[in-house]
Amino acid sequence: MIVFGSDSMNDSFQPLSAPINGAALCLACGLCCVGVVHSHVPLGVDEMELARELALRVDTFEEGLGFHLPCPCYRDGKCSAYHRRPRACVNYQCELLQRHLQGEASLAESLSLVAQAKTMLDTLRAEMPGGCATPITFKVLRQVVDERQRHLERDGDTARE
Questions:
Q1: Does residue 36 contact residue 52 with C-beta atoms inside 8 Å?
Q2: Between the N and C ends of the chain, which has fewer C-beta atoms within 10 Å?
Q3: DSSP state, 49?
Q4: CA neighbor of 31 nearest in space, from 89, 102, 100, 104
Q5: Which of 141, 144, 104, 138 is nearest to 35 (CA)?
Q6: What values do phi and psi take at 61, rounded to 5?
Q7: Can you tell me the distance from the alpha carbon of 29 to that of 13, in angstroms, rounded to the nearest whole number?
């Protein structure tokens, strides 16, 4: 965005702010890397060498080649291969990142949402058999939701009797 300055005889252009870059949000988040959002990431045939170098667990899925999540490159809360990650990782934009890039959510608001999501996942992880050692993946979340649904249905059936 450009603002026209008129406080001098020479009108000048002043940028209001720098373009929004999503890297800070992505590097602070990582929920797509740990398998919470997706179970795997697609790979191109031309990315097999990179996948080998990054020690990705490659497999064939319904839509083609890909690697399993959680990603082994996501360590200590960040991507260790950020500057040489697969194309799907480079191009992926979750809804929160899209909102941030469009200026609909500030970096501070976005990071706050990420922190809330991570806190919720930590709480869930602590309640699971295996505790903190259990990786929270989409598959695990689905199992937990299904199990809780069965308990609710059972409790509802018991209450009606």
A1: no
A2: C
A3: H
A4: 89
A5: 138
A6: -110, 175
A7: 35
Closest to 101 in 3D by CA, of 15, 13, 2, 26: 26
- 60 forms bridges with which residues in the sheet? 65
pLDDT per position as a tens digit, 86-116:
999 999 999 999 999 999 999 999 999 999 9
Q: 151: helix, coil or strand?
A: helix
Question: Mean pLDDT for each 10-residue chunk of the chain (161 residues)?
Answer: 35 44 89 89 96 96 94 91 93 93 94 90 76 63 76 71 54
Amino acid code (one letter) for 103 = G
User: Residue type for 84, please?
Assistant: R
What's the one-letter identity of residue 128? M
Residue 54 in tokens: 């990054």
Identity (one letter) of the amino acid at 106? S
Q: Which of 103, 116, 69 is nearest to 88 (CA)?
A: 69
The structure tokens listed for 7 are 């406080």
From CA 95, how far away is CA 32, in angstroms rounded? 11
User: Where is 158: in which H helix or E strand?
Assistant: helix 138-160
